[in-house]
Amino acid sequence: MAVITTDQAAVDLREPSGWRRAKNQFATAAMWFSFLCMLVPLGFVLVTVIAKGASVISWQFLTNSTIPPNILPANVGGMGAAVVGTLEITGFAAVMAIPLGVLGAVYLNEYGGNRPLARVLSFFSDVMTGVPSIVMGLFIFTIWVLHFGYSGLAGSFALACLMLPIVIRSSYEMLRLVPNSLREGSYALGATKARVTLTVVLPAAIGGIVSGALLAVARAAGETAPLLFTILTVEATNTNLFHGANTSLSWQIWENAQQPYAGAVARGWGAALTLIAIAFILMIVARLVTARFARYSQ
Amino acid sequence: MSVTVQADPATPAGSAGLSPRRPIGDRAFQVLALASGLLVLVILVLIAITMSQQSTTWFSSAGWSGVFSIDWDPAHGKFGAMAFLYGTVIVSLIAIIVAYPVSMGVALLLTEVVPRRWSRPIVYVIDLLAVVPSVVWGLWGILILVPWLQTAIYAHVASAVNGIWILGNLFGFLNGNYVSGASFFTAGLILAIMITPIVTSLSREVMATVPTTDKEGAYALGATRWEMIRGAVWPHSQTGIVGAVLLGLGRAMGETIAVALVIGASPTISSHLFTPGYAMPAVIALQFGEATVGEFRAALIGMGVLLFLLTIIVNLSARAVIGRHARSMGGA
Question: What's this model's pTM, rounded to 2 decimal places?
């Protein structure tokens, strides 16, 4: 008799009562359902963009430098001007924002430490990540375009303003992971601080810094709002970043989305597929860099 | 978020000031780094100054009552921002209400349910979602989602709830039988998709800081996983999650292109969520091209200033909440 009672008691302790177990299972199911809610729109948008964009995309579409008038069908002309615009505008923005962002992060982590100024700067770079992209566009419009006119450069400035705080934040997180023993070892050999930072600390963190920067570039490449008031738009390739209006894939999608013509809409889908491909490739490269080169991870 | 506490790397022996005994290159590098750091502050200050300057004509000529009036009629020089403010707030609230449960679910799934090895693909989905450009959501929204929602969802929901108190006002027909696919609600849904990744990953970081001992303690008392989450994970991460949600809200308020394409571009204040509306970033994007000179442009730039202030306030409070969370948890 005694044996049986302890047996039952033990079973009761381990197995939650029916109601509690049901609640637990319901909660787990709800979590999986919320993941499904995330997966469905992503899958839906990717399938649509690929299905509608793939039929438009061809070598001619990607390279033909004249964007045709909206009423023409999709097989005329191409988005070459927009591809070139996106690459040069985003590229130059990256050339400006990444070095400055990494240097800013170097200040925050290597020089600033716990000093009030560094804490203020760190705080405001976080705040700056929250500034809407359209405000950055308006800002460059008021400070640059009003004085020097529309150009790809203005668009690069706007994108660089968006990327800067993201690069600072991600590089800072990576620099924090570099063990202090590395720095101390170099100091012990008599190296100056700049030398330690450039030849020991930054190389140790380079994997994470590069991958963070690539993610920032991927985000910037897809931005439209900062370009609306800075590059104006053109129908032919403008390889001069510093002079004259320019265009970008994101701008073309934005314009074509509002068109009633089938050809324009089809070109919009094609541009969307191209843009997504660029962003995804950058993201995947970032992941590979992290997996391959990151020496210290969280 | 959690980093092993280490000695402050900023102060190795004798390197503190810019003393003349240090080599010139070394000092120059420090100054360069400092200048790059200060750039953030300079840009923020310049944004505030130049944009306020360009919008003073609007603020001074319209005054408080003009700025916050509901009259928007550029042809007759009426530039009231209230309808846009209303739209921004409503759309962001819808986005947060929809995104919050989904983000919590996925964050809990990642931290508490799925084994580490399996969390990779889920994180990958979140990353992909985050990197799809706003304009692509907009394109898909206006061409696919809007027509489908209008006929397959909104019309049915509206006829089901029409006339019911509150529900009818929110989701019912306007003027008898009118619903629109391009509406406040569609914009809110698209925004929800767009802010889910950031809210999820921030909440996940917060939940990852819950001490294992707390969780094990709950399990040792015989709690189910859900009870453990309610008893150990939830109280620990509440403030941090409030911060994450506020950051998501800030994102939602500033998101432009997708909203501009699906909101319907009608400056009206209406409780009916299935009718076209407008939002501050959307009106800037859509009408700036027409606003060549004068008060129209000043009004749109002024709207940018309001948006800047709004997102700064939301972000500051988010950071304050997160800072308090980090301090109370004694973590990094």
Answer: 0.91
